[in-house]
Amino acid sequence: MRTIRWGMIGCGEVARMKSGPALWRADHSALAAVFDRNADRAEDFARLHSGVRAEHDADALIRAADVDAVYVATRTDSHADYALRCAAAGKAVLVEKPMAMDHAEAERMREACRSANVPMWVAFYRRALPRFVAIRDLVRSGAIGEVRMTISRHFHRIPGPSEINGPFWGWRLDPKRSGGGIFFEAVGHTMDILDFIVGPVASIRAFADNQAGAYPPEDVVSASWRYESGAYGSGAWCFATDVDDEENEIVGSTGRIRFSTFPPLSPPSGRPPAPIRILRGDAVEEMPIADPPYVHQPLVQSIVDELNGRGRCESTPESAMRTMRVIDEALAEFNARRAR
Question: What are the structural domain ranges in the chain?
Fold first, then answer.
């Protein structure tokens, strides 16, 4: 098998701590070059990693002869631009999530790569994590019978004033740069993994608002939806509460599965994810499955394997666009009011 040589655009915290190391830790995968709009940050990243060079121009990285695939780890508002450049250069591309600012932009990206015959993936990395694959396998095996519905909730405290304007939340709470708020940024993971486990959503009805007024985008969403399979779903998400709490439940005809999309949100940080819980009547079975040290690595491995003709990555533009459509529709009325 050949070694897939990556170029990485964006050297922020996620790329440095979570996804970047996956590019050289996966089998038959290596990081060749990095670019960041902050040249010093790119130079610092390259200096810390032997054999990695810093490019001072994004197009130079994309067109480099020793780069086979490009990972775009930038803000959402630049994903389309870089994906289109990769398509024009004939380079495979992995784009961070959310895929784009909205479904229409995502479709332009998908079509550009399709027309250029360029492989594209989206970094909904949970699709490759062992604990979510285990949940999907439980559902497919009939462990809880026929899926009737799913129930999701996600509560979060308002970030403090310094956090709202800081490097992590600052751009994520600015819809002009991120596309939306915490729902747009975080709940996309939940909706994508439910798509992976239960199947696509056929239609959704939702209410969204900004109750606390701490920042411009949505801070509360309530929704109900129907899956193509005939199962139903509901969700309640509020990011202006007194507690950090999050859980999903898949309700079947003979049992239920409870799990969290995210590791524990409250301190101490670094705790393992909550065990998967399988409930049948009063009986409870727990399946503790830890995440790997670098959570993007299984997804990167699946991409490298696909490029080598030995498998398929589950996080495609089509699956990401389904999630994008659901999020767009859930926020459509709120965004229309905000635009007036």
Answer: 4-123, 130-291+323-339
The residue count of the chain comes to: 340
pLDDT per residue as tens digits for the range 308-324? 999 999 999 999 999 99
Q: What's the CATH number for 130-291+323-339?
A: 3.30.360.10
Q: At 304, which helix (H) or strand (E)?
A: helix 297-307
Tell if the pTM clears 0.85, that is, is over it: yes
pLDDT at 166: 87
The encoded tokens of residue 119 equal 């492989």
3-state secondary structure 5-61: EEEEECCCHHHHHHHHHHHHHCCCEEEEEEECCCHHHHHHHHHHCCCCEECCCHHHH
CATH number 3.90.78.10 is the correct assignment for the domain at 4-123: no
DSSP string, 131-178: HHHHHHHHHHTTTT-SEEEEEEEEEEEPPPHHHHTSTTHHHHT-HHHH
Residues paired with 247 in a beta bridge: 153
Q: How far is CA 153 from CA 191, 251, 257, 260, in A?
A: 11, 14, 14, 10
pLDDT of residue 302: 98
Encoding tokens for residue 75? Answer: 């803000």
